[in-house]
Amino acid sequence: MLEQYLRRLQERLTDYAAYEACLRLPPYKGLRVNTLKLTAEEFAALSPFALEPVPWEGAGFYIEEERPGRSAYHDAGLFYVQEPSAMCAVPLLDVQPGERVLDLCAAPGGKGTQLAQAMQGQGILVLNEKIPARAKILLQNVERMGIVNAVVTCADPASLEERFAGYFDKVLVDAPCSGEGMLRKEPEAAANWSPENVSMCAARQKKLLDSAARMVCEGGRLVYSTCTFAEEEDEENVSDFLRRHPDFRLLQQRKIWPHRERGEGHFAALFERTAGAGRLRLRPGKERAERAAVASFSSFAMDFFVRPPAGRMLSFGETLCLVPEELFSLDGLRVLRAGLALGCARAGRFEPAHALALAARREDLRAVASFSEEEIAPYLRGEELPCAVRGWCAVAVNGYPLGLGKGSGNVLKNHYPKGLRR
Q: Which of 177, 227, 321, 387 is catalytic?
């Protein structure tokens, strides 16, 4: 099928020779600094590998490192490994703190965590993924990046339309596509390419866009993005969407080609809703926080934090969570996590959640056991470390939390999740 794809591009590109030549070059690699935890300048000062700025994302950098995820700073959520051109869509939305934001097809979490950084922990961010296994990966990345205001859902996008009609200020649809822009990065994209697959993707994308459009409030914005070059999935879908939805206007669109810019293939279009029924308000849920759990957490937090997290708390089973202030009713939704998991109260004692350590700012912590990158390696393997701290503490790499430990008898008991150990 690759030959058929290339013939198709040859007919459409005036500079096809340059495109065909670029396919023999290695793909671009990048990372995005997590500005919820530190500035891009602070990360550049401690980065174990060379960085070069990405022009369309202030916290984005090109890297040459083959396996950046092996750095302990990755485990601490200081950065997200993300292909450079994939960073171009979110800035178009111009997300602001305090807004209501939806990422409709959010796994594995690159663009969703980018949205969260723009929100700075304020407002409500719904990250949805239809496939359960991918939704779990999404949740892991949300926790690693220390995001406190996200609601992670697992639902068919069409099932969300009525509930959230006119609710969101900003919506992102990073749609499943034929993947033409990823041929250098993902060889299976070439093996799976066919005209039939392009048509199937375009039809599915139309449905996703129709669902998303209904959930945008009047004056709100919608970004549609793909990692393909197919006009059927990109420009033609934009034109079709505008015909079906005259209450939207196109503000801008861009396409990144790997032989013209420093990034793999990507397409993004920005729409604004010019008419509608205003901004929907949703009723709050009936969920409540267990008093005993709140009291147990408050007692624990006095020793663990200098400044404990504050805000609206709810109990979900045994787990106490810090949730966005305007969290809506969750009845009928499959929710993997609403807000930040704080932990569980058991037998009168509070057991903190791994996510709590990752969401904590180092300046807010009282109980910390910090190690260098070399010293922290045994902890990431699940081993004990020497430590003078007693009781629960955040375990950090050069001051940046990446998990939990419990000090006893000059030994740090390891509470790093088994599924994350190396």
A: 227
Assess whether pLDDT exceeds 80 at residue 1.
no
Helix crossing, 195-215 with 235-244: angle to 10°?
A: 40
* Cβ-contact 370, 396 below 8 angstroms: yes
Given a cut of 90, whether residue 156 has pLDDT beyond it is yes
Residue 382 near residue 374, CB atoms below 8 Å: no
The DSSP line for 186-218 is: -THHHHH--HHHHHHHHHHHHHHHHHHHHHEEE
- Classify residue 164 by its DSSP letter: T
The 10s digit of each residue's pLDDT in 218-274 is: 999 999 999 999 999 999 999 999 999 999 999 999 999 999 999 999 999 999 999
User: Tokens 């600094």 belong to which residue?
Assistant: 33
The one-letter code for the residue type at 96 is Q
- Number of CB atoms found within 10 A of residue 16's CB: 15
CA atoms of 262 and 88, how far apart (whole Å): 12
3-state secondary structure of 268: strand
147, 125 Cβ separation under 8 angstroms: yes
CA 126 – CA 337 distance, rounded (Å): 10
Q: Tokens at residue 223, please? A: 């970004």
- 65-115, pLDDT tens digit by residue? 999 999 999 999 999 999 999 999 999 999 999 999 999 999 999 999 999
CA-CA distance, 376 to 72, in Å (whole number)? 8
Average pLDDT rounded to a whole number, residues 29-35: 98
Residue 170 has a pLDDT of 98
177 is known as an active-site residue: no
Distance CA 290, CA 190 (A): 53
Taking alpha carbons only, the member of 401, 400, 421 closest to residue 47 is 400
Question: Do 393 and 403 contact (CB within 8 A), yes or no?
Answer: no
Cα dist. 182→30, 52, 86, 133, 232 in Å?
14, 21, 11, 22, 17
Hey, how many other C-beta atoms are within 10 angstroms of the C-beta on 65? 16
Residues 161/335/138/217 CA torsion (nearest 10 deg): 30
Structure tokens belonging to residue 414 = 């390891």
Joined together, the tokens standing for residue 246 give 């005259």
- Count other Cβ atoms within 10 Å, centred on residue 370: 18
Q: Are 31 and 79 in contact (CB under 8 A)?
A: yes
| Cβ atoms of residues 114 and 66 within 8 Å | no
